[in-house]
Every structure is written in structure tokens, then in C-alpha cells.
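Box S2. Input/output pair 1.
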Amino acid sequence: MSSAAGSRVVVTGATGNVGTSVVRLLSEDPAVRSVRGLARRTPEWSPPRTEWSAVDIASDQANLAERFEGADAVVHLAWAFQPTHDPAATWRTNVLGGIRVFEAVAAARVPVLVHASSVGAYSPGPKDRAVDESWPTHGWPDAAYCREKAYLERTLDVFERDHPEVRVVRMRPAFLFKWQSASEQRRIFGGRFLPGPLARPELMPFLPDIPGLRVQALHTDDAAEAYRLAVTTHSARGAFNLAADPPLDAGVLGELLGSRPVRLPRAAARSAIAAAWGLHLLPASPHLFDAVLRLPLMDCGRAHTELGWQPRRTATEVLQEFLDGLQKGAGMETEPMRGRKVG
């Protein structure tokens, strides 16, 4: 493993859940000379050796290639989860904006591109064994998030063919949480009026046990460490799965929360989510719920071996930290992450 001394790194989506952790770790790395964070709104928060630029990759006509000029690596994290009722809007930001970033990397002759893909890019897969990075990445077509992640995987296939001089790394993390992201993720998935203080074990004596609901999680800082390693490890290229053990299901969550799992049919759970989403009471769509039930479990052996990466926290520790953040309205001094306690 080797690192590029004095490198300059540009990070898109630098003020969100993943971006804040990636920017912080890169700014603390002596091998990184400077970090430029791109976001729609520049934040009050600014770690050492970091500069900010206000850029909206969905609508700005500014030449991204100029922003990338002289960079040794671009880490592309910018992503919009909402509005879930307007998939054309998220497509403009996530897919068309992503393509604009890739084209600017080539135009500015940036030698390294690290792209935030996701477990959501994977085609439906097993819940009783883990799959490696060769598993198909066609997503779940009915869910905009998965459809967009899968489309960018195909776009990167073409980009790598046409630009072999660029070292491309695709990160495929599980669900990412940290204490500071609690308010942001409550708004994204639960809605702005969902009271965070309700996330207390004593208020959840029963836990819905939905067939197929078995997923992986990871602390955002642990994922950010993998991104840092991808930037500084010259041999790293291709896709890397990122997740922590154990996989989370009703049994594991029941032990963590002291709650008793109660079997709930898929159809009943989906109907409730669909009704709330249709009434604009819940931002998370039933299509994303369908996708989550089908996501495969990921084998992270490649990241362990080739990046020397290991998560520092278990998935249960991650979830406990996140629930604590929900109760306390945790956040950061960036606009997407700003803490707002409801209830």
C-alpha cells in the first residue's frame, strides 16, 4: 500500500452524512495537502486544510472541470434522496449530475475517481449467505434509489472503458449511520414531524418481524476510512463492499432494544407504508421497502484484504449510537445535518 504525498482531493456532497466524515478524515491525513468540499450551501463547519465551494451539480451551469482542475482525486458523494414523489427530480441530481461529475473528471484529467455506489445497486440476492462484488448490479427497478445507483454503475462501466487512465473505485456500503446524522436521516426516511424521542426501548415492547427484513449496517466514520484508503492506496480500483457484523434482523434488534419480535406479514407492512407515503406522511416509499427486502448480504473480504480496512464498530453499536442521536436531536453545523429535535 502506498499513498500520494501532498495530494489535493475534491469531495462532492461534502456536507452530508458521508461527506462530513470523509472530509474530516482526509483533512487529518498528512498525505493529503488540501480538501475542497463542494455542496449546495457552504457550511459554518470547516476542518483544517479545507476550502468550500457552493455548487449544485443538478442545476449549476458552472464548469465542474474548473473546480476539479489540479485535483489528484475526486470523491463523488453528492446524492438526493428526496422528493420521493418526483423521481425525475432525483434523476436530475443523482444520474445526470453524476454523469456531469464523471465527464468533468475526464476533462480535468483527474487521475482518481472514487464513486459512492451502494448495496442498493445490487440485484435481489440471498439473506442466508454473503455475496462478493461480482454479484449483478441491476438494482430493484421499481425503486428510484436502486434504479439510479444501478444506472451509474453502467455509466461507470463505459467511463472505465473510455478512460483507462483514470483509476476508478466504486464503494458499495451498507446502510450508514452515526450520531450526528440522526436528525438528517429522521427527516429523510421518517419525515420532519416524526418525534425522535419516540426511539426509546421502553416505548417499543414489540418489534415487527417482517420476512426478508435482514440488512447490514456500518458506522459512517468506518465507511469514510475506506474512502480515505481508496484515495491513498494506488493499487485500489474496482468495487468494494463495506459492512459491519452482525446482520440486523428482528432477533438482533429485539435483543438490543429489549423488545419481543412479533411476526408481521410483508403485505401488511407494505400496505401501511404505501398508505402513509401516498398521504405524504412518510418520505420513504413502499418501493424502497420492496427493495430492502430483496437486498443481498455482502461479503467484505476484498476491502479487508486489498484496502487493509476493518470496521471499528459492530452493527449493533452503530444502531445504538444512532438511536441515542435520534432521542437527542443530534446534528452538525452543516445545512443537511443540522440537528432539529421534534416532540
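Box S3. Input/output pair 2.
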Amino acid sequence: MSPTPPSPFTPLAGIRVLDFSHVIAGPFASFLLAQLGAEVTKVENAHGGDVMRRTGRGREAFVALNAGKTSLPLDLASSDGPQQALELATQCDVFIDNLRPGVLERYGLGFEAVRARNPRVVYCSISGFGRGAPEWTGRPAYDHVVQAATGMAWMAGSEGDPPIKTGFPVIDSATGLLAAFAILAGVRESERTGRGMLLDVSMACAGMQLMYPITCNAMTHGATPPRQGNQGYSGSPSADFFRTRDGWLAIGANTPRQLQALLEALDLGHLASDPALFSAPLDGREAPSFVQSLDPVALKAALAAALAGSEAEQLEVRLSACGVPAARLRNIAEFASEAMANGAIAAVELCDEGITVQSPGLGFRVY
């Protein structure tokens, strides 16, 4: 790989990262560090390299995850491979591994071995289920497997549906973000104390963080909320996906002001004073106080009828203008094109071996 210049924001300049990770979660973490100015050396299997180089998703995915790094082929199974790796580890500030716990230990590259040579090292171990519990440690994992294990695939969809996984590797990406966050904290602590540490980052914990409010309720009360399909987390009948004349529209009217504005925009202002709408609880679900007494079936039916004859694109603009969160359903390519055109996403070009990939980069801007 030929390193791509990082973003102009380089607070990690001078930080050296040795990256033994592959596929998505670990490489995404080190990509973010590289974009922040860190010097990342990606150690790849000498016999074929990172599997992402050879997947059907195309080389663009590999470039998107690994631009800005220097690639180093290394055969750990060779007679001198482990020693070469250990020498590299003595010179790094951060060591990243997303192999199953115990794999690098067999080559003398576990945390204790690396720390013995490099006391200040921030060693980030990324795995499916972490190092904490014997019955989980070492289990292989993929994104959809962890979605099943954590209950995420059961939260999607409506009651009666089969399990539904999120349609993209959300756990992998979240794990990369969590690992990068942990590493930044670890680097700061290492600089402050002069001591290294082992960071145990798991895909399972990343999944639980993504479901944080629900996770806390489950841990506190042992409670699992009912599946609610496309309805907003608030449980409000005016926060859902609605079919329009030309597509689908997501609406999030979660406050009295938003509901009033929504009803008026749909020429349903008279319903706000209709006592028939205030006669039933919201199926016992937690919801904002203003909808606790609404008849959710009647309100939703009125909204659906009014929206069915409208155009999603026009409603998106009109509702947003009056303070009601709304967005028509787009596919990801539509949104990416639109967002880049209007500046909502700051596109970053990543280049490697003649391939150019458009990327959202760090995902935030610095002014």
C-alpha cells in the first residue's frame, strides 16, 4: 500500500501503530488512527494478505479500510517470523490484534511478552466476546453471529417476525469505533503514567453499547422490550414509517409541539381537540406524557390516510421546515450522492495502486 496523506487534523502525529488485525473491525480502528496522523504498519499474512483483498466485495473495500497505512507481509509460522514481529512491537506505541484470544500468545506475541520488551505499549485486543468469561473467550464470531448472540437481531422487526439482522456489518464498524476510542484513552494514560495496558475490546460489548438504553434496562431489571418494527424508540404513534404516494416517509413527532405541527401540516389540526383520540393508553409502552392517553390506533390511522395521498419528497421539506423530523426513504447511494453534493458529508479521496475510493473519512469535521 502507498500511504494516503491523512486529514489536516493530525493530533496523533508521531504515534506508531503496529496492526495485526484483518477484515473490518481492527482495520477500521487503525484507519481512523491513521487519518488522525498516526504511523500505521499493517502486518499481513505473507501468503495472500488480508482476506479483504480477495473478497467479492471488491478491492475498494480494502482500500477504504486500509488507506494511509504501510503494509508489511510477515509469516508468523516461519522460523524467524515471531522474532521479527517482536522486534517491531518493541518500537510501537500501539499494538492492535483482532485474532482470537490465545493465537498471538502461541507465537510469543501476547500482551505480557510484548510489554516485557515495551513497558509503555497500549495493546488493544479485539475479539468476538472478549477475554473475561471462559465459556465465551476464544469463540469465533462474525457480525451477524454477534447480532444474534446479543439480542440485536431479535430487537429488529415486529412481533411474530423471524430474527432480522441489520443489513450491513454494524457490529464490525461499531467495534472499530470503540477500539479507536479505547486506544486514544490508552495512549493518553500511557503518556501520563509511563505504563502500558491491555485493552480488551469485544464485538459483543460494542453491540451492547449500540443498544445502550435497552441494555441498561435489561441489566437492571432483566427486561426485554417488545419488538416495535419501524416505530421510533419513543413508542409514539406519530413516530414511524408511513407509506406515501411515491414511497416511504419516516416521521418523528415526539413532543406536543411536533405533534401539533404535524397535524396542522396534514390539515388534521382539528384532531388535536378530538376527545376520541384521547381515550386509550399506548399499549403500556413507555412514551412521552402527551401521548400516554392518545388512542394510538385512531391517530395512526388518521396519519396514514392523510399521508397516503401525499408525496414524500415534498413532505420531507415541509415537515422539516415546521420543526418535525422527517425523511423520505432513500437507498445509501442516493443519500451519499445527495450528501456529498450539498456538503453534508465531507468526502475524502483514498488512493492505492490506481484505485480511488470516496470515503466519509473521520466522520467529523474540525474548524
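Caption for Box S3: Residues 168 and 303 are 31 Å apart (CA to CA). Residues 170-193 form the longest helix (24 residues).
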